[in-house]
Structures are given as C-alpha cells and as structure tokens.
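Dissemination and training. As part of the outreach component of the grant, students in the summer workshop were shown how a complex can be specified as a set of sequence lines and then modelled as a single object. The example used during the hands-on session is reproduced here so that future cohorts can follow it. Participants entered these lines:
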Amino acid sequence: MSLLNPVWTSLLYLVAAVFFILALRGLSSPRTARRGNLIGALGALIGVVTVFLSAQLDNVPWILGAIVVGSAVAAPVARGVKMTQMPQLVAAFNGVGGGAAALVALLELSHAGDPWVRLAIVFTLLIGAVSFAGSGVTFAKLQELMTTRPVVFRGLPVVMAAVLLAAVAAAVVVVFTGSLPLALLLLVLGLAAGILLVLPVGGADVPIVISLLNAFTGLAVAASGVVLGNVLLVVAGTLVGASGTILTRAMAAAMGRSVAGILFGAFRGGSTAG
Amino acid sequence: MDGMSLLTITVLAVFVGFEVVSKVSSTLHTPLMSGANAIHGIILVGAIIVAGQAADPWVLAVALLAVVLATANLVGGFVVTDRMLHMFHARKAAGTKQAARKADGK
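and obtained this result:
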C-alpha cells in the first residue's frame, strides 16, 4: 500500500532534511536551541511517516510494535535521568543508533549485487560497530561500572593494528564476494576496535570521545543511506558526521586538548588526562 | 538515484554541516551533540525499510531489533535534549532573577 508516489516521497524527505538543517542551526544559539530541537523531532516524524506511506512494506504490525517497545524503553529513561547522568545516556543512545545502522547494513548484504554498494555496507558495518562498542565503553566509564582511569596495557598499539589490518582484509573480501560469515567477522572486529579505541581515554576526555563517536554514527547512517538508496539517510547522516566533527574539535579546543592527543596519546606511550 | 547525484548531495551536505554549527557557543556544546545524536536516529527509516522487506523470520527478528534500537536513539535523543535545554533555560531564568534581586537590594 503505497499512498505516495515517488515525487511526493522525495519532496517530503527533502522537507525532513531541511528541518534537520534548521534544527542544527537552531541548536547552535541559546535563544533558539529548544525550538531547534523540536524542529528536528518534527523532521524525524515527517521522515518516519513518509516511509510508512511510500514504501511497499510487509510486517507493519511487527514494525509498529517494535517502535512502541523502543519508545517505551527510551522515553521514560530520558525523562527520568538525573542531570549528572545525561552524558552517559547520550552515549548509550548514540551506541544503539550505530548498532542499528550496522544491523541494517548486515541485512542488506544479501540484496547487494554491486561492489560499490558492498563497499558502503562494509563501511557501515565497521563504523557502526566501532560506535556501538566505543559508546558502550564510554557509558561504562561515566556510569562508573569500570575504572574511569585510562586503561593501557603493553602491546595495545600492536593489538589495535592487528585488529584494523584484519578488518581491512575482511572488508576487501566482503566487497568482492559478499560473504556473510566474513561480514559477521567484520562486525566482531569493529566491536573490538571500538573497545580498544576508547579504553585508553581518561574520564575527563570522555565527553569529547562521545562527540567523536556521534560523528562516526552519522557517517555510518549516511553510508547506510547509500546502501538503501535513501536520500534522507544520506543527508541526515552526512550533516551529523560533518557538524559532529566540527563540534568535536570545538569541544577539545574549549578544554585545551587536541583530538589526536586524546585518541592516540596512549598509543604513543603517554597517557591522557584521568 | 545514480552515484554522481548521491556524491553531489553528500559533498554539499558536508559543507552545510560544517557551516550551521560553526558559530556554536561553548555552553551549547553538550545539547548540540545530543541533538545531532537524536538526528542520526533517523536510521529508523532504514530499519523500517529492511523490516518491511523481510521474508525470512530470522531477518525479520534482526530487523526488528534494529527498529527498537533506532527508535530508542531517535525518541530518547530528542527527549533528553529537550530536558537538557529546559534545565539550561531554567538555570538562566533563576540566574536573571537572582541578579534582579541583587539589583533590588542595592
């Protein structure tokens, strides 16, 4: 049941994309910030309603049920959380978004006949998994489920390099063959890379890393938009990836830190601020 | 959509993304991050498409998991950002009131 023809679908996606741009601009200024957030929520609502009205969808009751479950879990937590615990909640929401992007890419692998589409799939898988696992570690650090001090062990750079090399090798094979087992391996390697990336970061630098992982998730969402041929996902993901990168640098500068120093300080033998 | 159009849109979106947040004040860093975080929850649209095309029960199960995760990102993200900004405004209003009281006391 597609009620909307492709032209109306594209127009509504364009409206949603413009709302996201206005939302980010609104959020950049104290006077308009709250309105900006509401405009963003409205843009998201338009996007979700449009996909229901335009795409040929089966399993609609199941999908609606899953949306109810997701909202019923997230909304009360977001409404009840203490102010001091908000950063780790943002980290958690960012992580599940990255996880969702990775799962979407994984399921699209069997439909992808073109190597370029499979390239977008491996990118989404890897970055989504890094964001999911990295956000999980930042959540654990901020929630004090683990030590907030930098976790560094001898050989960390070697392990990280091995994981990344294996990930690149697996990614190349998936791009050329579309192998599902290797895509799953890539997912696992991405999770490992996310954990290894965030472990050496000290508690004081964690908010900057959350912002960086937020930009990563944006890029994963943009790549999943390429996979699905969905312009709204491409635009929204790219906007978050680009603005998140600028924001990460601004946050690091405001704290007198450098992003490279935070991420690679431990790998160079130094340690980051605890 | 062909690859060249997608590439064009992506490159333009990068510049728009750079531009819209270039003048953010440092007090708004965390709410802006949280708002951008909510926006990438729009991956929900992708999860819905994949779930709507699923024929195999396993594929449907994984796709529905993606729908739940994406909804949590989207709904939770906007709600928590709104709360952050609400506190921000409340604190600022309280600050102004205190300043007014001080001015009255003078």
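Chain B touches chain A through 78 residues (CB under 8 Å). Students were then asked to discuss how this feature might be tested experimentally.
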